[in-house]
Amino acid sequence: MYCNCKFLCMIFSYWKCLWRWTTSQNLSSEDLQAVLGKKEVQEALFQGLLSYKPNSPGTFSQLESKYPDQVKLLNTVQTLQNYIDVDSFQIWDLIKHYLCSISYGNITNALKNIAFLDTRPTFILPNVWKFYYCERLFLLRLLQYIIENKNNANHKYHKEFSHIYNTSGANLMSSLVGQFEKVTTSTPPPRKIHNDFGNETIRQEWAEYNLREQLALLQLIILLIDEENIPVEHFQTLFKAFRRCNFGKNQSYHELLEERHRDMCMKIVYLETCLFIVVSDKQYL
């Protein structure tokens, strides 16, 4: 998996459950279809990182009126929105899933044990923030797993995966290209995050998550190109993104990168070059 191991162990959110179910192959096909067959699940999977809706005026007030007694957590939502552009209610769900992961509860009673949990800003802010970025990577990894195994007759769920892909995957290439464009134009959080999170390395951690998301998306796009033509306009968008970072060599946040990031940067270079060669070889241009 692509996430930091410490936080992998913490995540028992909805997507972690899906990952565990699909990779263990212990569910019946009917039970798996009951989960993966849900419209909202398929939409989130195929929209990927775009399934996180941007913050809009008024939603925090609605959230505040719904949970007036949760002042600390509402403050957490507001602070997080300074650093991630996500809808207030989606951030609230992230917080509840995170609380479940450390209290062994479930989403319906996530707030009941709040008095016994550490909700200090310097504790909960960086942990929910990392939880969010790990969940983003889970979405991409689960989709890759489904695509890799949908035609694998030896996989228990290949028929279910194939059905899901054929049902909801019509605009997947467009979605992946849009996600890659968004990830490669993202900017690091401002330095103020160091004080709010009480963490001096949080911006370097953001850079690592961004590199991992680029890698995951490039792998997905290459997988998809094996099966379908990439429209010219989508490849032009990708090519502009490749040129913007000199085929992965010059990330816009290079000052945050360290020696430990070199391997991921080189993988991006190779994948972008490989993707360009494959598309050119298939004469899509």
UniProtKB/TrEMBL annotation:
Residues 62-279 form the Nucleoporin Nup188 N-terminal domain. GO terms for molecular function: structural constituent of nuclear pore. This is Nucleoporin Nup188 N-terminal domain-containing protein. It comes from the Eukaryota. Keywords: Signal. Residues 1-24 form the signal peptide. One of its GO terms (biological process) is RNA export from nucleus. The keyword Signal applies. The lineage of its organism: Eukaryota, Metazoa, Ecdysozoa, Arthropoda, Hexapoda. It comes from Diatraea saccharalis (sugarcane borer). GO terms for cellular component: nuclear pore inner ring.
